[in-house]
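Aggregate trends can hide what the representation actually does to any particular protein. For completeness, the protein is quoted in full, as a sequence line and a line of structure tokens.
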Amino acid sequence: GREVARSLRWAAWTLGFGLGGFFDGIMLHQILQWHHLLSLVDGVDRIAEQIFWDGAFHVLMYAITAAGLWLLWRARAALPAVGGRRFLADVLLGFAAWQFVDVGFFHWVLGIHRIRVDVPDPLLWDLGWTLVVGVPPLLAALVLRRGNGGPGAGRRAALGVAVAALIGGTWAALPPPNARTAVVMFAPGIADGQAWDAVRAADGRVLWRARGVWAVRWEGDVRPAPLRARGAWLVSSSSAVAGCLAWAAA
């Protein structure tokens, strides 16, 4: 009925919004490395803290995308009636919505970062990103909404979007290129002095620590083996894992 169809629209919008966030984080935080989530926030200037909050952002995108997948599963019976074109249009609307919310709210209202923070005129980069990444999916969505798609197209479109969400989530959990910083959690009972000794034995240096969560940096390759041999449960360069631990340590 109408309620199921409405749930399907919400599923598509939510999945598109989450995919937009994953695309933002993967491209701008990890690949291009043009900014961190809190690049322009006073007092958050240590790289370990920036990585933590980038990870917290990805954790939020995981939650939004998981909600979209759950809504999609609940409303799967409506897929044949809606059709692939309409479903993809709603996904693209959600994707475009993230780009406009990010630039309009997080960049211009809150001012916590810009598309590029190391350029003389960041406004041009904000506008350029919106024109290149935000406007095309919006226009494509308007075109796709004029049709519905053939029988079975809704299921195929939904499957494709679900796979894309899973790929995006997996990619977001990978360490940034040339990562030299890792988040370390030691086993209960490991004293601070033992943890310091473990970091020194691994040729690392401590950047940040809070409630058993340590941020460690290496000049060369990350060396997890000496840390694990001395009681480390987790050694991860993934910003998503860092975000989970950041919330736990807050």
